[in-house]
Structures are given as C-alpha cells and as structure tokens.
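quick one before i forget lol
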Amino acid sequence: MKSISLSGSLRKGVGKKDAKAVRKQGMIPCVMYGGEKEYHFLLKETDIAKVIFTPETYLVNLTVDGEPHTAIIQELQYHPVSDKVLHADFYEVSEDKPFSVLIPLKYVGTSKGVLRGGKLQKKMRKISVTGLMKDIPDHIDVNITTVDVTTPFRVADLNIPNIKYKDSDRTVIACIQATRNLAAEEEVAEPEAEEAAGEAANA
C-alpha cells in the first residue's frame, strides 16, 4: 500500500467545547485505537485533507508527540451542512496482524459488451479486503475485456493471493447494460440462430 506521513499533537481536552475551539484553529480532533493504548490527538485540517480527498487509500505513518505509529483511517465524521471533517478515527495496524481496508478498483481493458454497443456499469469503485500489510496492494485491477450482458465481472473473478473479501464471491463488480443498438443486435441474432438450428435438424 501507498503511505503518507502525518504529525499530530496530543489533545489536552476532550470535551465538545474544546473540540469546537480547536476546529476554529484549523485542527481536527482525532482518536487512534487498535494498539496497546488509545490516543486522542490533533491533526491540521490541511494535512488530513491529503489523505481524505483522493481516490487512493493510504497507510498513515503517524507521529504523535514523537512516537511513531502506522494506521489507517477507520471512520470520518462530517459537518452536515459544510461537509467539513469534524472528527477522524484511526486504527493502528502492524505487519503481523491482518486488518481490513477499502482498496480502489482500477478498470482496465475494453469490454466485449461495449464493443457490441452496450454500456458498462461500474458497480464498485472500492472493495473491502482483509490481509496482512505486505499482501494488501495499492489497488486491484479489474480486467473487463470479457464482460458482456450475460458475463458480468464478479468478486470471484479477482485473483489476489492471500487476500479475503468482505463481499460474497457472486457480488457483481461490473456488468453491461443493454442499449437499443445491442438489443437490436440480439433480435437479429436470435432468428439467425433459430434458422441455423432448423437447417441442422432437417439435414
């Protein structure tokens, strides 16, 4: 996985009044759990934006008052009107302990169904995976070359070793929506197939 380094400072207060005050100073209240102890700390709003407003998923090399940690963002709370980040939860991870994280999907190739006039529907942009740090990739390629009306791309078609998926094997990742052009092609193909079958039966 790609990584990014952030530096935070321990929070002195943890109440709502304190949180409101630090937000006015451009800081975001955060908590980190999953390790030996829980940390309440502050990050600059501009720094945490580097991790949030991107399609990538990052491991965060997080330094809190001089102590190094490795973590992922577990949950974010946003303001209901302004959409500004109000709070961030981090989950501390280690090299020898499996953890779950959302990984971006990158679609590659041109599907058979699109070449026939259909429309590609991307059902998922990211997928939840569980594995060790060394096994989790930056992203997962979805080769859509064979995707057609009757042959969607499912979770079972992903081939990443040592990785488990939260979604079931039959969950559709990408499929083809039939358009008028494709429907017309199917209507022409069906009589031709029936005619060929009839000729074979009479032969």
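fyi The longest helix spans residues 180-202.
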